[in-house]
Design goal:
Largest sheet: 5 strands, mixed
Structural class: alpha+beta
CATH topology: Trna Endonuclease, Chain: A, domain 1
Radius of gyration: 16 Å
CATH architecture: 3-Layer(aba) Sandwich
Strand order of the largest sheet: 1-2-3-5-6
Shape: globular
Distance between the termini: 64 Å
Oligomer: single chain
């Protein structure tokens, strides 16, 4: 009996780029000048500038196609960056955004559950961001400091 073929796995680069473009669109919609930094070995994903506060933001985007862990190590978080975790969901379903200052991730990593501190496969679940109030927390881009 022949084995049925495995379902095709989504391309991680496509997922990542989709997340970056969704975040860029949201920032542009909110009036921030936004640039996508294309490339394989980039230090940041987006640059956003709020002309009303004269503030520039380095933005890191982490994207998932469906609910799972956002893989991220607390040891690699940069306090001065803003992290936007994107849950793309299925076509026809709304995209979910969790906007988290890097300083929050650095200053109290234990708040983001034990898995964020896991040495082998660190990550954060979307429900943790929901419980902590980071869903659609775009206000960080309006702050002057």
């Amino acid at each position: 009996m022949a084995e049925s073929p495995k379902p095709k796995r989504a391309d991680g680069q496509i997922t990542g780029l989709a997340g970056e473009l969704f975040v860029a669109a949201e920032l542009l919609k909110r009036g921030l000048q936004t640039s996508v930094t294309f490339g394989n070995a980039k230090a940041i994903d987006l640059l956003a500038y709020n002309s009303s506060t004269d503030r520039t933001f380095a933005v890191q985007v982490k994207a998932l196609r469906s609910r799972n862990f956002f893989l991220i190590s607390h040891l690699k978080v940069v306090a001065s960056h803003v992290y936007v975790f994107v849950l793309l969901n299925k076509p026809g379903q709304a995209v979910q955004y969790f906007v988290v200052p890097g300083s929050d991730l650095v200053s109290s990593p234990e708040r983001f559950a034990k898995w964020f501190l896991d040495p082998k496969m660190p990550g954060i679940q979307p429900k943790t961001f929901e419980q902590l109030g980071y869903e659609n927390a775009w206000g960080i881009f309006d702050s002057a400091t």
